[in-house]
Amino acid sequence: MTDPLIPATLAFRDNGTPFSPLYDDIYHSAVGGLEQSQYVFLRGNALPDRWQGRRIFTVLETGFGMGINFLTTWAAWRADPARCERLHFVSTEKHPFTPADLRSVYAKTISDPSLAALALELTGAWPMLVPGTHRLEFEEGRVTLTLVFGDATQSLPTLRLRADAFYLDGFAPARNPELWTLAIFKALARLAGEGATFSTYSSAGDVKRALTQCGFEYRKVEGFGWKRAMLAGHFAPRWRVRRYEPPAPLAVDERHAIVIGAGLAGCAVIERLAARGWRITSLERHASVAQDASGNPAGVFHPMISRDDSVASRITRAGFFYALGRWAALERLGHKPLRGDSGLLQIAANDEEARLMSEALAAFGYPSDYVTPVSRTEAQRLAGMPLAQKGWLFPHGGWIDPASLCAAQCAAAGAQLERRFGVDVARIEQAEHQWTVFDAAGHALARAPVVIVASAHDAARIAGLQHAPTRSIRGQLTLLPRGSVPPLFMPVIGEGYAVPLSDGLTLTGATYDLDDPDPSLRAAGHLENLERVAQMLPAFSGMVDSARAASLPGRVAFRCVTSDRLPMIGNFADEDAATRDAQRLRGAWPLDLPRTDGLYGAFAYGSRGLVWAALGAELIASQIEGEPWPLERDLAEDIDPARFLLRALRQGALG
């Protein structure tokens, strides 16, 4: 289970220097935090010179603290006309500040107006204090801050990135020894790119020895302020210190990608690649976007809470936060999807579930703006009608119109997007680093070095995958006309769901019919939906009889799911090569598998496409570009399209 996140406690020395009572150490030198950051970390890593002329430059920091190093690095990037195209700053933090404390410490320590403006942007985007990886974007995505909230000893080994510079900035080794161990430096060595540099204010003997053992060469230089010496150096191993090389960008002659499918998964990929300057050709078999499962009139979005903080919960939490950030960015650009974000109530199924979830929420210590337990009385006030049970409120949950979201994402891509509808893709073929997409008649539809298959049920067939066990779930929705049921104040979910839409309709659903291909509405499905909702909302009981149910409007869609109910996101494995080398790969890990260059998948999102699609698209774009991944490597491996191939290899079922 993920450990609860304990925020930092803000305190100041008598001289005004911020310090940590937990570690009994200062956050920066009393001589000056901005000056220390410039001297120790930017100058110590030869910045900004080293990022000039680069497309991507990545800084990895141990210990975000007040964020002064990020702010000074961002300011230096802004001021440099020869800056890299995209700056990634990745930082770990076990005890992050609350937004209020961060604003307070900046108000007392930052007097430079330009830096204060950046600090204001940072505090405005500051994530909820929930464990995991949080991706923040500034400068229209050209500056990306990836914050990893949690213990660095656990989180650093899960990162997947290629670092160009390391800022070693934990509290002093004597105060915080966990952040200066051999294990920490081994984790950094696994992430170091060619020519990666490091700097740190510390010059302790244990630090020097650990750096040397992990392949770093150091030199002692004059320290900042009252410190006599500090260390700077670079990664130059004299022997092999890692099994896997850090990720590199895909080598392509042209930044052009074909996206097959224009539902939630495909449109999210379109937006994320276009934001990085890629040209996109979208191929969709229907006449417009969001026509299959993404075409429902609305869908709910919310985190997933489980008592053991399962893989699905962690991925959904990361996706929820990232989706909220992307939707807000679309709105700032003038592409506003239709959504209601006034909150969402989840109602317990029974007293036992209510008790267990209350205990879990108390143990996790989540902040109230993430999730709040509510009594039955309070839940009834929020919903505007009687409820069968108490539950929990997601203040930032709600509902969204998927088609409007897809339209907003395509609009954001602008002229970089070529849209082709009524195109039925049959197969793909690679030759000379180019993928060609064919229709059923064998006609070439498009060519590009990269293809992302986001076509749900058809994805495995198009990509020629043998190890992608997906199934179809028939889901029937029920639309209740205005005035037919009491009005709800916000969406309520539980055994079923009820969503008040902007036009006065109430959406309920959905059935879960495994491998049922019937596309027609069924009265029995409407009654099933209403019966489940009535278990949460007694006022819905008996509102519609069997005779009226047959005439109710609704919609049938077919969700694509895997056998483990997790999505398929990322670079496809080369199944033929893996089969030929099955004996050697029997004990393989995901990074050992041969991969198919330029071929990626984003499908099998089931009923969670709204919270998985944006994060999945960012993961794929990061894999293509060789950027830091937006979630932990172990979670990415849990949704890797090659995981079923890997299981077959481990079980000796191939070769």
TrEMBL record:
It is found in: Cytoplasm. Its main location: cytoplasm. This is tRNA 5-methylaminomethyl-2-thiouridine biosynthesis bifunctional protein MnmC. One of its GO terms (biological process) is methylation. Its EC number is 2.1.1.61, 1.5.-.-. Residues 116-233 form the MnmC-like methyltransferase domain. Catalyzes the last two steps in the biosynthesis of 5-methylaminomethyl-2-thiouridine (mnm(5)s(2)U) at the wobble position (U34) in tRNA. Catalyzes the FAD-dependent demodification of cmnm(5)s(2)U34 to nm(5)s(2)U34, followed by the transfer of a methyl group from S-adenosyl-L-methionine to nm(5)s(2)U34, to form mnm(5)s(2)U34. Residues 257-622 form the FAD dependent oxidoreductase domain. PANTHER family: SARCOSINE DEHYDROGENASE-RELATED, TRNA 5-METHYLAMINOMETHYL-2-THIOURIDINE BIOSYNTHESIS BIFUNCTIONAL PROTEIN MNMC. It comes from the Bacteria. It catalyses: 5-aminomethyl-2-thiouridine(34) in tRNA + S-adenosyl-L-methionine = 5-methylaminomethyl-2-thiouridine(34) in tRNA + S-adenosyl-L-homocysteine + H(+). Residues 1-236 are annotated as: tRNA (mnm(5)s(2)U34)-methyltransferase. GO terms for cellular component: cytoplasm.
